[in-house]
Amino acid sequence: MTFYEDMSPYTYWNGGESFTDMTTGYRSLTFEPPYERLNVGWLSGDQPWASGVVPTGFIEALEAVLAVQAVNEMLGLHECELCPPSDKQPPESYEPRPGHQRSSVGTGEIRIPDRHGRAFAAPTLIGHYVIDHGYKPPKPFIEAVLAFDPSGHMPARYPWVHFPWVPEDAIHYDASVE
Ligand SMILES: [Zn+2]
């Protein structure tokens, strides 16, 4: 997948953010992001990446976000380039490889707000990178994940979205009525 340096400005998709709450599944909305987005975890097989021990609680907090958020799912499938190629792992399979906890293919992204009004933009594969490969994301991202409560809901207009910054004029649709 395309490599983006950690903490660089997000340029993968300049259209609206398409946001699905995995806990309700069918509901989604699309909106222009009012926040700056910074890349984290867009790893590539031919670029260096940081490994190391992550703080206690970080993996659990990251998995809690991965369980509820699905951003820009329509942009395609990402495959881990750190895993060795294997005929036993069909690229369309979401089953983790033997010895792994998370799948080496993923679609979509997550957003983690930070204290400065920005959002970190990471592919959902970041869970696999951290848990199965020992990737250590930048400290600001780790701190933001630890500080973020993905169970917190928007107060009024979008109560089903586990994300704090959806603009009032966001365009949304509800696929569950289709
Ligand atoms: Zn992998």
List key phrases describing it.
178 residues; alpha+beta; four-stranded antiparallel beta sheet; three-stranded mixed beta sheet; 3 helices; 9 strands; globular; binds zinc ion
Word description of this protein:
The strands form three sheets. The chain has a four-stranded antiparallel sheet. Strands 3-8-7 form a three-stranded mixed sheet, covered by helices on one side. It contains three helices and nine strands, in the order βββαβββββααβ. The chain has helices at 58-68, 126-133, 139-147; strands at residues 17-21, 27-31, 36-39, 69-71, 77-79, 105-107, 109-113, 118-123, 171-174. The chain is α+β, with helices and mostly antiparallel strands and 178 residues long. It is globular. A hairpin with a 5-residue loop joins β1 (17-21) and β2 (27-31). Residues 80, 82-83, 104, 128, 132-133 line the site of zinc ion (ZN). Zinc ion binds at residues 80, 82-83, 104, 128, 132-133.
- How large, in whole angstroms, is the Cα Rg? 16 Å
User: Strand order, biggest sheet?
Assistant: 4-1-2-9
User: What's the number of extended β-strand segments?
Assistant: 9
**Number of separate helices:** 3
pLDDT averaged residue by residue:
85
Percentage of β-strand residues: 15-25%
Overall shape: globular
N- to C-terminal distance: 33 Å
In total, the number of domains comes to 1
Query: Helix proportion of residues, in percent?
Result: 10-25%
List unreliable stretches of 5+ residues: none
Element pattern in H and E: EEEHEEEEEHHE
Largest sheet: 4 strands, antiparallel
Ligands in the model, by name, code or SMILES, are: zinc ion
Structural class: alpha+beta
